[in-house]
Amino acid sequence: MTTRKVCVAITARASYSRVRSALCAIQNDRRLELQIVAAASSVLDRYGNAVKFIQQDGFPVHARIFNIVEGENLVTSAKSTGLGLVEMATVLANLEPDMVVTIADRYETIATSIAAAYMNIPLVHLQGGEITGSIDEKVRHANTKLADIHFVCSTRARDRVIRMGECPERVFVTGCPSIDLADEILKDPTPEADPFRRFGGVGPELDLSSGYLIVLQHPVTTEYESARGQAWETLRAIAELDMPTLWFWPNVDAGSDGTSNALRSFRELHNPRNIHFFKHVDSLQFLRLAYHSRAIVGNSSVAIRECSYLGVPAVNIGTRQQGRDRGSNVIDVEHHQSEIVRAVRSHIRHGRFASDPLYGDGQSGRRIADLLATVPLSIDKTLYEGEVLPEAARGRTSARQAA
Question: Rounded to whole angstroms, how far apart are CA atoms 84 and 10?
Fold first, then answer.
């Protein structure tokens, strides 16, 4: 039996959490050989150095690509993507994988997709068919059109991919591997004992015994010039709430300089005694911290995806997640201090929500590995113009139905 070489490109800390359980399943499948390429912010210390956690979890890193151009604006995002394409082509030529896996919608992922497509390597795209707005949605759908095999999170996402002209036989509902991590938390909800000593960061060591908030807010690329003011509104809201808060550093997106500047300036001007700032926490421990929080605040997809499964109340701020399918745990607000405060207090009164398998059932990694080992590989594509059949009619079960 021929072993298939599967090259997975990881470009950010979120990308790693999105695929970690699939990496485990691939590594444990004798039909597959795992190759990992770490690129972009995943190899940078100021954005958490996710590659360190990848290696600590026992995964091999076959190549590192340093392609992020300093500046965190629209021009540097384009240049970083171009450098990523140049370097990824060289890496793929050296590794000679049988297929390449790219994840979701971050701007850097398009470099992986273009390199694989131009080099006639079958491309597998995870999390296609979702709606998020801004540049992320353009990149996600572009990845879909360049990809040959699609592993989506829900039947609605599958329908969207097929409506884009992708062949139904190449679109599989696997659920999101990050939900596998959330499922681990539900099975063992033991709280993290001392995140301050374990993960460092700056700010006071807070007493978390009476409850705390999580904040994770990124800049919006189409609103990057407003990033500082948007973060400032959230900071003011958290100060008014006066609850212990664990605040995590933003992604390397256009506008992240503005967000980071707001965090540093607020800390220096007001010396908040209820906020501790972290660069990075490994994905499993982050979800463990989120699970035991009173609410998660900001605009990260983790609040809508993993926290829907965990039942964690989420306050989603602004447009970054506009259009994304969401559960009842989410309250949407604008970038206004008063709205954020009211939503958080409403969620605290409500408490935990029921677990919602909107994005998966905890078995995604196993499904993905099995499909990677068995699905026919091809780079030939034709535009599908037929009917979108219901998932049940195709004899498959969606992650939601399986749950």
Answer: 12
Residue 265, number of CB atoms within 10 A of its CB: 14
Task: Tell me: do 118 and 204 sit in the same domain.
Answer: no
Q: Are residues 147 and 216 in the same domain?
A: no
In this prediction the pTM is 0.88
CA distances (Å), 103 to each of 162, 304, 331, 360, in order?
A: 18, 17, 27, 16
The predicted-structure confidence for 232-262, as pLDDT tens digits, reads as follows: 999 999 999 999 999 999 887 888 889 999 9
Which parts of 248-316 fold into alpha helices (H)?
256-270, 283-291, 306-310
Q: Please name which of 133, 134, 166, 172 lies closest in space to residue 153, comparing C-alpha atoms.
A: 172
Q: Of 293, 301, 332, nearest to 213 (Cα)?
A: 293
> Could you tell me which residues are beta bridge partners of residue 149?
124
DSSP state of 303: G
Higher-confidence residue of 11 and 279: namely 11
* Domain span holding position 67: 4-176+360-402
- Same domain? 328 vs 192: yes
Residues 6 or more apart in contact with residue 6 via CB below 8 angstroms? 26, 32, 33, 34, 35, 97, 98, 99, 101, 372
Question: Exposed/middle/buried for 71, CB within 10 Å: 0-12, 13-18, 19+?
Answer: middle
- What is the amino acid identity at position 106? R
Token couple for 16: 């790693």
Q: What is the CATH number of the domain that holds 219?
A: 3.40.50.2000
DSSP lists the bridge partners of residue 295 as 213
Q: Give the distance between the most distant pair of CA atoms in the chain.
A: 64
For residue 383, count CB atoms less than 10 angstroms from its CB and return exposed for 0-12, middle for 13-18, buried for 19 or more. exposed
Rounded Cα distance, 267 and 213, in Å: 17
* Alpha-carbon gap, residue 338 to 176, rounded angstroms: 34
